[in-house]
Every structure is written in structure tokens, then in C-alpha cells.
Design brief:
The chain is an all-alpha fold. It is 88% helix and 0% strand. The longest helix is centred in the middle third of the chain and has 47 residues. It is elongated, with a radius of gyration of 27 Å.
């Protein structure tokens, strides 16, 4: 009920502004379309960047989980330093700045 009252208040304010300044409506409509376009571009770009970020982190998480599962074998074969080096290389690659 409070949401409905708020919506009615906003609608009333909009009607008063448009009736006092009709030019506002002429400016408001293209601005609304521009806002919607920018919003759609931003949301799709944001999703794509999130997907790329997840893909670039995947090898790091995978190696870490493999290391936790096989820690006894890694220690038994004395490959601890090799795993540390692999993890450091993956982290270095992930944190390296890239320019498009």
C-alpha cells in the first residue's frame, strides 16, 4: 500500500511538471531511451566481463583443489615446489595487466 502511494505521488509530480513545462516531456522521452540503451549495454558488458573473470580464475581454483586432494602424493613424490611454482605462475598470469 505504501508502494502504491509512492507511485501515485511520483505520477502526480510528473503530471504537474509536464503541465507546467511541456518542454520537459520532449526532453524526457529521448533521455529515457538513451538511459535504457546505456543500461542494456552496461548490463551485457558487465555479464561478459564477469564470465571472463570466472574463466580466468578457473585454472587457479582447479589447481588449488587438486593440490588439496593430492597433498599426500605431492609430498610423497617431493613435488611441493613444482606445485608452488605452478600456482605462482597461474596467479602471476591472472594478475598480469592486459591491454586490449
Amino acid at each position: 500500500s505504501q508502494c502504491v502511494l509512492c507511485f501515485i505521488a511520483i505520477l502526480t509530480i510528473f503530471v504537474v511538471v509536464v503541465s507546467v513545462t511541456p518542454l520537459f516531456l520532449i526532453v524526457f522521452i529521448p533521455t529515457g531511451y538513451l538511459y535504457r540503451y546505456v543500461h542494456l549495454v552496461y548490463v551485457s558488458s558487465s555479464r561478459e566481463l564477469q564470465r571472463l573473470k570466472s574463466m580466468s580464475r578457473s585454472p587457479i581454483y582447479s589447481l588449488f583443489s587438486e593440490s588439496l586432494v593430492g597433498i599426500t602424493s605431492i609430498r610423497a613424490y617431493d613435488k611441493v615446489q613444482d606445485m608452488v611454482t605452478k600456482q605462482e605462475n597461474l596467479l602471476r598470469k591472472y594478475l598480469q595487466p592486459t591491454y586490449a
